[in-house]
DNA sequence: CCAGAAACTGGGAGCGCTTCCAGGCGACCA
DNA sequence: TGGTCGCCTGGAAGCGCTCCCAGTTTCTGG
């Protein structure tokens, strides 16, 4: 703080000013033992006098530790990250990383270029750990799981169970939502699924099926969406023409629910009078639709937090167990 | 790709296998001149055979270039980043960084710890450049502007004009919105401001004042909010009791507009019949309120993109000019 | 008061890569 | 054929830090 010098202050200069060897200075910086009290203090004084800050790069080279972890998001759609979902994940991740000396790197592996970068990252240990969010169970995911860098997954890709992951209880949440519909006395309950090549999509569909099986109801009214608002509209229209008798629909995302809601209203069906609907995700918009959307909330920040924690534990040599975070039903006026 | 060896492959190994010196190998890796065609090819072959990937850390140490830039967000509220706004900025930033060899680091400087980190970053050149989004014109911002690392600001802090920044035209957008209200024949136009300790807050207020001045209308109906939904509710209630005659209000954020809308409806005022309202930001929810919100859209991804571009230009020694991105009115049913 | 243990100390060898530099060598021109 | 120029080439010196190791000092306890 004292000296706004242009040049970077090095450990050698600190050592010299303190009248000790570089080794000694290094020891006090990393507060390692075997330094006399006098020298330790001399070094500390020199550090503040000179405004010394260790050079992270040099340290990384010497210790073979990058001092950074990366949050990698692999997808074919450059816009995915615009989803507020990830912003929340980042907040969670950051909250635990903040207690650490670790830096956070962001890798949006959307193009081939990004994918390559991720691969190299995995192979060359440029980061001390990676948090991977990959929607598709592509080869990249499996590669990541096998890499010798600690990797924890956020969410599970479809068709592939990583060794370490934290996921929201999508299946349980879907079951909850569907049961809620059953409890409301609905009997002809349809669903609009998400992308079935994503873990969340298949899991939520499974939850729907389970709940109806338990209730002894028909789970045959299904249309496939893609998590988007337009997809929801299309799927709802399809549902309406194939199964005009439906009296409720569980929709695998709020975005789709918003699209579906519009189609329903346009078709003259009242919500929840004629058909009750419940969404998933609890996005902010869900409370502002007409009627406000009953939906399933998942603890997104907690997801990020737990990913970071699990990564830490992995990095310190432990073998954590996968974690599934609870989801809960948020009841509003659409049911 | 060929060899999944545990150990990192080094330049020396490549050189040895290719039968050249390390210097030569280095030259071809960085495709520098002064290497014969034969050797160049030999090295290239060795690279793919061995699956060599340069060690970024070592390179960084040798070249004194980190190979990374950071996006720093300084705020006193750990939750700011949960705002989808930043997610979009990141998408924009990433889109240009993807063409580069640069890594993206994220620094959410919310705690004191984070602040310290940011300061050190600025002083020690651990990154080759920083994109700084700081709402308050605190000392940190000024420090950043003076740092010998290239720094570009996203948005302008209040009370302080950075040398390099890209910002949305908040003032122009606010003027647009207010003029729109005037055009609709409203004459008793109030405003709910954002936080006046943020650049966006003051700029939008200024735009409001300008528009009314031009129209020769009274700009005295103002209540201060804090950009949040609750703050909007409170401010609207205040407005209603202080200036019950208002027939329109320009609200400095959609979040506040949503809160205000509820208060208005509860108070029995119809929108836009009794009072027309326009928000700012064009968040997704804005299209789902009842009635859908007229608002001002700002090109957020473009903001990120331009920040990254400006930073690049700065890093390559140029002296770019500040940039102000246009905002535009999105007309919906609330006016 | 002495042997042995324990704590300190600084030298030096890296970590993997870039880059300066001096020497070598072939080509080209007169 | 000799001289010059310019392009290769590899050796070696770092970039700033960690950490092993051997040597020195200080401190025990008997």
**Structural class by helix and strand composition of chain A:** alpha/beta
Oligomerization: homodimer
Whole-number radius of gyration of chain A? 26 Å
Strand order, sheet with most strands of chain A = 2-1-3-4-5-11
The shape of chain A is elongated
Shape-level CATH architecture of the largest domain in chain A: 3-Layer(aba) Sandwich
Distance between the termini of chain A: 60 Å
User: How many structural domains of chain A?
Assistant: 3
Query: CATH superfamily of the largest domain in chain A, please?
Result: Response regulator
Q: How is the CATH topology of the largest domain in chain A named?
A: Rossmann fold
Give the SSE string of chain A: HHHHEHEHEHEEHEHEHEHEEHEE
Can you put this structure into words, describing what you see?
- Two copies of one chain form a homodimer.
- The first copy, chain A, has twelve helices and twelve strands.
- Chain A is of the alpha/beta class and 335 residues long.
- Chain A has three domains: 11-54, no CATH class; 68-168 and 301-325, Response regulator (Rossmann fold); 170-297, Rossmann fold (3-Layer(aba) Sandwich).
- In chain A, the strands form three sheets. In chain A, strands 2-1-3-4-5-11 form a six-stranded parallel β-sheet, sandwiched between helices. A four-stranded parallel β-sheet of chain A has the order 7-6-8-9, sandwiched between helices. A two-stranded antiparallel sheet of chain A has the order 10-12.
- In chain A, β8, α11 and β9 form a beta-alpha-beta unit.
- The longest helix of chain A is centred in the middle third of the chain and has 17 residues, at 199-215.
- The radius of gyration of chain A is 26 Å and the shape is elongated.
- Chains A and B meet through α4, α5, β2 and α6 of A and α4, α5, β2 and α6 of B.
- The structure holds a DNA duplex (30 and 30 nucleotides).
């Amino acid at each position: 703080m004292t000296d706004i010098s242009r040049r970077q202050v090095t450990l050698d200069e600190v050592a010299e000013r303190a009248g000790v060897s570089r080794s000694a200075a290094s020891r006090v910086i990393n507060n390692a033992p075997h330094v006399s009290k006098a020298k330790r203090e001399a070094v500390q004084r020199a550090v503040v006098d000179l405004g010394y800050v260790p050079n992270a790069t040099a340290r990384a080279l010497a210790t073979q530790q990058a001092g950074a972890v990366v949050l990698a998001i692999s997808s074919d759609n450059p816009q995915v990250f615009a989803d507020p979902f990830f912003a929340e994940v980042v907040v969670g991740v950051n909250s635990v990383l903040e207690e650490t000396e670790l830096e956070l790197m962001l890798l949006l592996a959307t193009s081939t270029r990004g994918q390559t970068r991720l691969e190299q990252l995995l192979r060359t240990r440029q980061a001390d750990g990676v948090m991977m969010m990959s929607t598709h169970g592509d080869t990249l995911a499996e590669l990541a799981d096998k890499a010798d860098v600690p990797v924890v997954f956020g969410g599970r890709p479809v068709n592939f169970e990583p060794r370490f992951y934290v996921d929201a209880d999508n299946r349980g949440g879907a079951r909850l939502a569907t049961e809620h519909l059953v409890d409301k006395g609905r009997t002809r309950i349809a669903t609009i699924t998400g992308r079935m090549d994503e873990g969340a999509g298949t899991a939520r569909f499974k939850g729907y099926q389970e709940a109806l099986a338990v209730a002894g109801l028909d789970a045959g009214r299904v249309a496939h969406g893609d998590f988007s608002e337009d997809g929801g509209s299309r799927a709802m229209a399809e549902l309406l023409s194939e199964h005009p008798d439906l009296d409720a629909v569980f929709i695998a995302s709020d975005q789709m629910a918003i699209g579906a809601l519009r189609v329903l209203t346009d078709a003259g069906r009242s919500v929840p009078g004629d058909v009750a609907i419940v969404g998933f995700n609890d996005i902010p918009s869900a409370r502002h639709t007409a009627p406000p959307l009953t939906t399933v909330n998942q603890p997104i920040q907690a997801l990020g937090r737990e990913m970071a924690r699990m990564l830490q534990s992995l990095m310190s040599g432990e073998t954590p167990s996968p974690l599934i975070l609870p989801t809960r039903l948020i009841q509003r006026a659409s049911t």
